[in-house]
Design the sequence.
């Protein structure tokens, strides 16, 4: 798999994660309350996989190399994507902060979890759409074959540094999130 395909593949898993959050939101709107563990897992996935494994590759590897190739022409676009990553981090922190009261069924906390989760989903769906449809096609056009292999090597080093199973662990978290909702659906 080439470097951009690896990132697109990770988007696939993040989309599945967002689908779980959407299902949970719908359940809340119907008056149910997914277990706290569901949102604990969501926070873990968002922090470890989406924000660390995936965004690290984009911010510290892809964006840097692409910016070098484009010599400033895409700085504003990169900055906008970085800004969305940052906003996502803040929303996840807010979501985690609401969980203790959510676990005690505070109606306000349930509404805050719903609102924060929806804001996070909207943000990431828009973000991934932009990357898949604008940014990655640009990267595929601009990066040379050498750039792509250098990116691929950096991604592989990062994968090994994280123990080599980050994707598999994240995949299991998404599956487990689904299981935690099944008895409510
Ligand atoms: Fe991104
Ligand atoms: Fe991404």
Sequence:
């Amino acid at each position: 798999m080439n470097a951009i395909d690896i990132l697109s593949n990770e988007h696939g898993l993040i989309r599945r994660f967002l689908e779980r959050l959407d299902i949970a939101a719908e359940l809340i709107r119907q008056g149910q309350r997914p277990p706290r563990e569901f949102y604990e897992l969501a926070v873990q996935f968002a922090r470890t996989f989406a924000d660390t494994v995936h965004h690290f590759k984009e911010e510290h590897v892809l964006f840097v190399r692409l910016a070098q190739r484009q010599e400033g022409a895409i700085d504003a676009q990169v900055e906008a994507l970085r800004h969305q990553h940052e906003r996502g981090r803040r929303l996840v922190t807010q979501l985690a902060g609401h969980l203790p009261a959510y676990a005690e069924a505070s109606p306000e906390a349930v509404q805050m979890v719903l609102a924060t989760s929806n804001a996070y989903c909207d943000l990431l769906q828009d973000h991934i759409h932009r990357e898949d449809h604008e940014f990655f096609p640009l990267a595929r056009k601009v990066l040379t074959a050498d750039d792509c292999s250098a990116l691929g090597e950096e991604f592989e080093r990062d994968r090994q540094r994280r123990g080599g199973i980050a994707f598999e662990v994240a995949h299991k978290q998404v599956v487990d999130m689904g299981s935690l909702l099944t008895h409510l659906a």
Notes: The two ends are 36 Å apart (CA to CA). Helices lie at 3-29, 36-70, 75-103, 107-142, 145-161, 166-182. The chain has one domain: 3-182.
